[in-house]
Write a structure and sequence with these properties.
about 280 residues, alpha/beta, about 45% helix, single chain, seven-stranded parallel beta sheet
C-alpha cells in the first residue's frame, strides 16, 4: 500500500509523515509539497504538488493508493484548489482519500466552513472511498501567543468565557495516521476535538502557574482585539479574521464533548499544561 500526504512540509503534514513512518515502511510514503526542498529532510520520497497548478498533481499522485488531503492554507481558494487535487486523484486511480475538514462543518458559524462543506460534498460524489476528519480547534492557535503574553504581561483575546475543545497538531496527526492505515475507516465522518475544553482564562492561569509570573486574561471587543493584532504586525485581513473567530468561539463554535478524537487514537488528547510547556520551551 502506498501513501501520499499533501502539504507535507506544513506544520500538520510534517507530523503526519513522521508518525506514519512509525507504522509503515518509509518506502511506501510520498510527501507532496509545493516546494519539495522544504520536505527534503523527512526521509521519504518527495514530489512537487501545488494545489493551484493541476499539471503538477497528476504526476504527483501516480501510483498512490491512499491520499491524505490536508486542507489548503489559502482561505478563499480552498474549494477550487481541493477540486484540483480530487480530480487528479480520481484520474490517477487513488483508491482511498482522507480529508481534513472543520469540526461541525455543516453547522459551523465560522466563515471557514463553507469551503470545507463544498469539498466534503465533492469528495462524497467522487466514487472513491473516503474518510472525513473534521478537525477541531488547534491548541497551538492559542499557545502560539504564550510567549508574547508573558512578555506583555497579559493574554488578550475576544473569546470571553467561550469553551475551546482544543487538541494539538500531534493529536490530529495521530488521527490521520489511523484513518490512512485502517481501511475500515472508509465512509466515516469524525468530529474531532480535545477531551477537556478550556477557556482563555484557563490558559492564562496555566501560563502564570508555569512561569511564576502573573499573566491575566483580558477579554476585548472584536474591534479592540483586531486593532491589537494589527499592532503586533499581523496583516489586517488576518487580524480581523482571528478577532471574528474569537467572537464565535465565545458562542461555542469550537466546543465539542464527544471525545471522538481520543477514542480514535486510543489515548487521551494532549493536556493544556503539556501544550503550554511546549510553547514556553
Amino acid at each position: 500500500m502506498t501513501y501520499a500526504i499533501t502539504g507535507a512540509s506544513g506544520q500538520l503534514g510534517r507530523i503526519v509523515v513522521e508518525k506514519l513512518e512509525g507504522r509503515v515502511p518509509a518506502s511506501d510514503i510520498t510527501a507532496l509539497a509545493r516546494s519539495p526542498e522544504k520536505a527534503a529532510d523527512l526521509g521519504v520520497a518527495v514530489r512537487k504538488a501545488d494545489y493551484a497548478k493541476p499539471e503538477t498533481l497528476g504526476p504527483a499522485l501516480t501510483g498512490i493508493d491512499v491520499l491524505l488531503l490536508i486542507s489548503s492554507s489559502e482561505i478563499g481558494q480552498r474549494a477550487p484548489q481541493h477540486h484540483n487535487v480530487l480530480a487528479a486523484a480520481k484520474a490517477a486511480g487513488v483508491k482511498r482519500i482522507v480529508y481534513t475538514s472543520l469540526i461541525h462543518a455543516d453547522t459551523s458559524p465560522l466563515n471557514l466552513a463553507p469551503e470545507h462543506v463544498h469539498t466534503e460534498t465533492e469528495l462524497k460524489s467522487l466514487g472513491i472511498p473516503f474518510t472525513i476528519l473534521r478537525n477541531g480547534w488547534y491548541t497551538e492557535n492559542n499557545t502560539g501567543f504564550v510567549k508574547g503574553a508573558v512578555a506583555g504581561g497579559a493574554l488578550i483575546g475576544a473569546a470571553g468565557d467561550g469553551r475551546i475543545s482544543g487538541a494539538t497538531r500531534a493529536d490530529y496527526a495521530d488521527a490521520a495516521v489511523v484513518a490512512l492505515t485502517d481501511a475500515s475507516q472508509a465512509g466515516k465522518v469524525y468530529e474531532l476535538a480535545g477531551d477537556d475544553a478550556y477557556r482563555l482564562a484557563d490558559l492564562a492561569q496555566e501560563i502564570s502557574r508555569q512561569t511564576g509570573k502573573p499573566v491575566p486574561y483580558k477579554s476585548l471587543s472584536e474591534a479592540e482585539y483586531a486593532q491589537a493584532l494589527k499592532g503586533f504586525g499581523l496583516p489586517a485581513f488576518l487580524a480581523e479574521a482571528l478577532a471574528s473567530w474569537d467572537v464565535l468561539i465565545a458562542k461555542g463554535a469550537v466546543f465539542d464533548e464527544s471525545r471522538a478524537l481520543s477514542r480514535l487514537i486510543g489515548r487521551p488528547t494532549t493536556p493544556l499544561a503539556t501544550a503550554v510547556a511546549a510553547a514556553l520551551a
